[in-house]
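ok new one. same drill as before - structure tokens go in, u give me an amino acid for every spot. 209 of them this time. try not to just spam alanines like last time pls lmao
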């Protein structure tokens, strides 16, 4: 029996191209990366070491949407407890906020000083989600704010006439960083944090309008 080398080579070439196209489209990609390809513990952000629950989820939003990402985190834990008998400690829950949504993590002093509520279309001079944030943190939820978004926050939250002033934007960012709600952790860039969370088994859920 003869073996058609050119036919075999052609099939291999075709399969190689098929795998390449499939990878580009995301077909067959592993759900988590192997331990050997993950960042070392030395390069991890501090929150990573707290992902100890058997159920892991990250709720993300770049829009305030009346705090729906925070409320979904609460609903998730409540349902795990009432419907499935799980304790809060059995789930690792993250809330990652960037863009305008970081206004949900500012304390009342900032809300009184700047038009935060007006920008978020949440009228008032106090953060109505402050108590919810404190409750979630007490239940072990990890709430993360994007530092890139804090740096750019003056362009969103300063009065419009002041947004072109670089010095005022820098001052606002410093002010905002010092007046985050207690327990909020700042990460360098939310887009990287979301990748890190999913690499470590967190299901991604977008909580925004």
């Amino acid at each position: 029996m003869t073996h058609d080398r050119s036919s075999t080579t052609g099939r291999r070439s075709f399969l190689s191209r098929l795998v390449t196209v499939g990878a580009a489209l995301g077909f067959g990609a592993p759900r988590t990366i192997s331990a050997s390809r993950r960042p070392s513990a030395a390069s991890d952000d501090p929150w990573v070491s707290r992902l100890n629950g058997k159920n892991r989820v990250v709720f993300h939003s770049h829009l305030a949407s009346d705090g729906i990402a925070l409320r979904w985190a609460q609903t998730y834990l409540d349902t795990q407890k009432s419907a499935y008998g799980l304790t809060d400690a059995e789930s690792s829950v993250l809330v990652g906020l960037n863009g305008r949504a970081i206004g949900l993590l500012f304390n009342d002093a900032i809300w009184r000083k700047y038009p935060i509520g007006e920008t978020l279309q949440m009228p008032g001079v106090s953060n109505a989600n402050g108590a919810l944030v404190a409750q979630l943190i007490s239940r072990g939820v990890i709430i993360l704010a994007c530092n890139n978004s804090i740096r750019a926050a003056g362009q969103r939250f300063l009065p419009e006439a002041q947004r072109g002033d670089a010095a005022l934007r820098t001052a606002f960012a410093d002010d905002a960083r010092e007046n985050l709600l207690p327990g909020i952790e700042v990460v360098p860039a939310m887009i990287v944090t979301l990748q890190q969370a999913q690499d470590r088994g967190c299901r991604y859920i977008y909580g925004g309008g």
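The chain has one domain: 47-206. and btw Residues 1-9, 14-37 have pLDDT under 50 and may be disordered.
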